[in-house]
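Async update (no meeting this week)

Hi team, since we skipped the sync, here's where things stand on the single-chain job. The sequence we agreed to prioritize is pasted below, unchanged from the tracker. I ran it this morning and attached the output directly underneath so nobody has to dig for it. Comments welcome in thread, and please keep replies under the output.
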Amino acid sequence: MKKSTIFFALLALLMISSGARGQYRWHIVYPDLVDSPYNFNSVSCFGENCSVAGSALIGAGNAIRDTSFIIHSTDGGLTWNSVDAIPQVILHPHGGAYFVFDKIQQIDSLDAIAVDELAGAIVQTFDGWQTFQTDTTNSIDREYYDVDFSTPAEGMLNGGFGFYYSTLDSGRHWDQLIINHGVAFHSYGSGMFRVFASPDTIFTTYDDWRTSDTSLIVLTDSIESSFFVPQFLTFGGNDSLVVLSLHFDSTMTHYSLSIAISSDLGQNWQYPLHDTAELYPTTISPLSNRTIVIAGEDSSERIVMSTNRGVSWNVYAVPLEDSIPYYRILSVAVTESGRVLASVRTDSNGGDYSLLAYLETVPSKVNESTASQTDFEIYPNPATNILNLISPSVTISILDPLGRGYEVKQTGNTLDVSSLPTGVYFVSDGGRTNAAPSRAKFVKK
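Output:
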């Protein structure tokens, strides 16, 4: 089997800083798209072309249901356009099912796929979301647990319970194979696919599974191998592998994130990140870009990021803008220019939502208590019934973190906020002469 040196060739020079001071924050993006509440479930980028799949609740009463939407950006996520007339229903032998897109993949600048894992359906575009091809034949008739396309034609999916499928014609036909204990896979193009079967076997094909090779990996930890617990393996280009693991202390009560990287299909390993802060990894950005981001379930709002193709790594505390609490990052993507986009699961105003955000540098000398307001103030904060304004403009609006407006009674310099649900809100004025609108954040108890 061929071996090649890839972007991890300089791993011997690795430098780690697991206590890096927070230099970033997640800036929330509010595309004017659909009626809320809405969820941004998955984001993917190729170059500066990015797509996001989400869902929103529509209807009323017993007629409420999820509806899917897709937005697309050609400038690295700074501006977004809605994808119109995307398919919403797939026909199964037992009836129709509404789409709820769980995952999206931007394959190249024009081609992309959106996947409904539960319904077992794929929607593809070959012209930048102008027209669509929908898998309505139900040729597999099972849920999709994951999917990966290397080209618009060649891809692979995990059907669960050891069933894997590959396609060479954009999903019109699928070849089935059974690989027990398979946990990760990758499509490389030109008929090449790989599947990792836990704990140590990698299956490789160069002819769309007509034949395949097997190789064994030996994942060892130079410190305490018995306390090194792999969580998942990620394939990169050529023969590169990345394993994200939990490293437990000798008492098995505390864990930290560890990274194991191989450039020769698991024959030799480097451990560039070890014994960093507790972080349960849930997602990693594709390894093809210079910037690689690992995120997870972490109450301290941390991410692990490399900006030099894995040569060195840092751990950053990254709060969500305006101190909005969040649970975890669902999906992360990186543009060619290095902008990091994410769908972020948050708990706001008693609801569980996923927002779209991108990583931005925190301006120097930011006063956190006044960073969200400019030339007017509010008190008390938190507020229960009455919120007082200092120097308000004539036009005042109340918004929640999702951009939804709320009507409250205003009497002079006071607002009656007693009817608002508990949560975080923003008071936004209409702007003054020759001045931009400003806003102030407050918490409703």
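Quick observations from my side:
The CA atoms of residues 24 and 312 lie 18 Å apart.
The chain has two domains: 16-138+220-361, 377-444.
Reply here if anything looks off.
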